[in-house]
């Protein structure tokens, strides 16, 4: 289950991005929908009611969050989603209001933060896209807020290349393995 990635961040990102492109080209829409349901089921079991959840809106190449976001909203949870700013920082908005802005500190109101990643290591470090957006945002979370990263099953790594500013996560969720608590967080 846990694999080895190159020690160089740029090389590790290239490896995982190539895998994601290949997966996206080969994956039927029904598989993506099934992944979305499995991720939502696993994550919903970790949300205490009522809760504020900060979660990403998935791109086509990321583990899908559509079903999760819908279920959280339907269950009455407050859901905030990121808005990328020109400086690569993250503002936040309510899920239901694309025009509203809550500010960069809004992640601090979340009980649970769900983040994307290209890969996750056993120690909780995540390999992101390279802009540092989530690393900056995670410094503003509450100390008791849980952070869970979403990746595909083949994106679990023994270790990922890291910098001092990289923020660890508490757990990882994959479509095939559900939620896995991590050792370094």
List keywords for this structure.
alpha/beta, Rossmann fold, 10 strands
Give a description of the structure:
The protein has 185 residues and is of the alpha/beta class. 26% of the residues lie in helices and 22% in strands. It contains four helices and ten strands. A seven-stranded mixed sheet has the order 3-2-1-4-7-9-10. The longest helix is centred in the first third of the chain and has 18 residues. The radius of gyration is 15 Å and the shape is globular.
The tally of structural domains comes to 1
Q: Provide the succession of SSEs.
A: HHEHEEEEEHEEEE
What is the number of helical segments per DSSP (H or I, 4+ residues)? 4
Query: Strand sequence of the main sheet, in spatial order?
Result: 3-2-1-4-7-9-10
Number of strands: 10
Shape: globular
Q: Strand count, sense and closure of the main sheet? A: 7 strands, mixed
Rg calc: 15 Å
Residue-averaged pLDDT, rounded? 90
Report the β-strand fraction as a percent range: 15-25%
> How would you name the CATH homologous superfamily?
NagB/RpiA/CoA transferase-like
- Please give the alpha-carbon distance between the first and last residues: 20 Å
Q: State the secondary-structure class.
A: alpha/beta
In the CATH hierarchy, what is the class? Alpha Beta
- Assign a percent range to the helix content: 25-40%
Examine the coordinates and then state which fold CATH places here, giving the name of the CATH topology. Answer: Rossmann fold
Uncertain runs: none
Can you tell me the CATH architecture? Answer: 3-Layer(aba) Sandwich
Quaternary structure annotation: single chain
